[in-house]
Amino acid sequence: RSSYSCCYFVLPCCFFDFHGKYSRRQSKKTQYREYLDFVAQVGFVCGFHVEEDCLRIPSTKRVSFIGKSRTYPAAERALIDKQITEFINSRRTCAVATCDRRVGFNHEDHCGGLCKEAGSEPPEDETETAGTIWMPGFQPREKVEQVRNCASLPRDFVDEVVLNVANLLLNAAPQKSCSDKQGGNMNTWNQGESLSLREVAEHLDKEILKKLKSEYGGLQTLLKNNHQVFEVLDGRVHIRDWRKEKPPSKTKPEVKRRLSAEAFKTRLCWFFIHHPDGCSLPSEACPYAHGTEELR
Description:
This protein is an alpha+beta fold. The protein has helices at residues 31-45, 77-95, 107-111, 155-170, 197-203, 206-213, 218-225, 254-262, 270-274; strands spanning 8-10, 48-54, 63-70, 177-182, 185-190, 195-196, 230-233, 236-239. It folds into 3 domains: 8-96, no CATH class; 150-171 and 191-240, Arc Repressor Mutant, subunit A (Orthogonal Bundle); 247-295, no CATH class. Helix content is 31%, strand content 14%. It has a 3-stranded antiparallel sheet with strand order 1-3-2, with helices on one face. Strands 6-8-7 form a 3-stranded antiparallel sheet. It comes from Loxia leucoptera (White-winged crossbill).
């Protein structure tokens, strides 16, 4: 739409329409094929001879479209531009019911083919040019995206949750011991009990849960981020027993082996500091430091 002489190449990936997520309309095709057909349709509506090609790349999304020539003479640009506008408006009409709740639609504007995002009026100096914008009010995402993978939570808050959950698992049932044979001696190490994520959440403070709800994945993401202490399998939380972990493969590529060696004992061992029985591994076998004097 930028100019008559424009050509394009597009490699469709994520399933999005003009204003939000793409909604499926038929079940006879795969979601990917249906979306590819939609992207090709956009090219046809815009007046291109659309060609399809499959790229030689290591990806499941390899189908691309190329528009190198137009289906209409330059004199008909105004007519095609009107056709494009109607097509965009028709797509918006179909998706009003399923649009993102963050986007508010003004009925009057919607009927006239305009889309407003709640609280996003254009500045006064842009009002005059608003009519020339193809999709007024369209904002695919915030200018600054908030990181919500629990990585930005305060360290002391994360440490508190980790300690609370670990103590909960250790005290959830009578001591569950694992034998550890070293030098002929039989030692016991409390591995605790496993609990479902729901059971763990029920025992946590409401303020903690409220804070975690603002993060994508919430409690589960935080526990998985702390994989030194926890193992989350099929919705159940376990205390990780490092004796059961597979030793590093000798067949690993040199680069990965080197990186693994460089990360050895660069962090303190949580179990050495907090577990009532200490770490299940001897210092020389544990990938984490048993005391600050071992830190690298």
